[in-house]
Amino acid sequence: FLIALQPWRAQRAFFSSCGMSGRTCRNACRLLYDYPDLAKAIVAAGALVSALTVGSPLVLVELKEDVWKKNMSSYSAFVAMGTGICSVVLGAAFGRWSDNIDRRVAMALVGFLNFLPWYALLIIGVNSAGLIVYCVFWVVSGVTCMTPTGCPMIFAFAYDVMPAHERAIAFGISYFGVYICALVAAAAGAGV
User: Fold this and answer.
1) What is the rounded CA–CA span in Å between residue 4 and residue 12?
2) DSSP-H helix ranges across 100-165
3) Separation in Å, CA 12 to CA 1, 6, 107, 149, 160
4) CA–CA distance from 32 to each of 64, 67, 73 (Å)?
5) In whole angstroms, what separates CA 94 from the centre of its chain?
6) CB atoms within 10 A of CB 170
């Protein structure tokens, strides 16, 4: 953000010191133009990541505080550990299985599994039973290995739509693009 406020010379010096040149940025834009499926995957992944984070500050923090009270921090850590263990134990198997089906179906399943805790909370209600079911489904969603930068499925999709000689830069663009989409959505949400 601060870089955007600096004069153009300072920006050019900053990007040059990071190893980025105007040519690299042009190549990235050309790649997105030439391969619109990559751009679609990045926007979809950014929307998924940012949509998953909306409910936490609005609903989940207060619910955990009301139900778990002084144990909120430790119980939240247990849920996070369960999610991590599920990712480590089952993530590779889920990845191998999803490699054998259509990527779009697999991506839809990733979205469904990650939103399942929120669906359960909507159906059961914002109460202690809803929080328990939410946490169970959150641990189950760990199988998708979702992180703030997306999930492996997003990068597998980028792998599928890119030729071999363009994949390295496509993965970098994917990481960057998912972060930018999430950042823009978070800024819009903060403005609301």
Assistant:
1) 11
2) 103-124, 128-140, 152-161
3) 15, 10, 37, 26, 33
4) 41, 46, 42
5) 17
6) 22
Please give the average pLDDT of every successive group of 10 residues along the chain, which has 192 residues.
46 49 71 86 84 82 93 94 94 90 87 92 94 95 84 81 83 84 78 69
How far CA 153 is from CA of 100, 112, 159, 160, in Å, comes to 12, 13, 10, 10
Closest CA to 183 of 57, 48, 46: 46
Helix axes 152-161, 36-55, angle to 10 degrees: 170
Rounded alpha-carbon distances, angstroms, from residue 183 to 15, 115, 151, 176 = 20, 20, 17, 10
CB 43 within 8 A of CB 179: no
Distance CA 192, CA 188 (A): 6
At 59, give phi and psi (nearest 5°): -125, -50
pTM for the complete prediction? 0.77
Task: Extract the tokens encoding 108.
Answer: 């839809």
- Residue 27 identity (one-letter amino acid): N
Rounded Cα distance between 131 and 133, Å, is 6
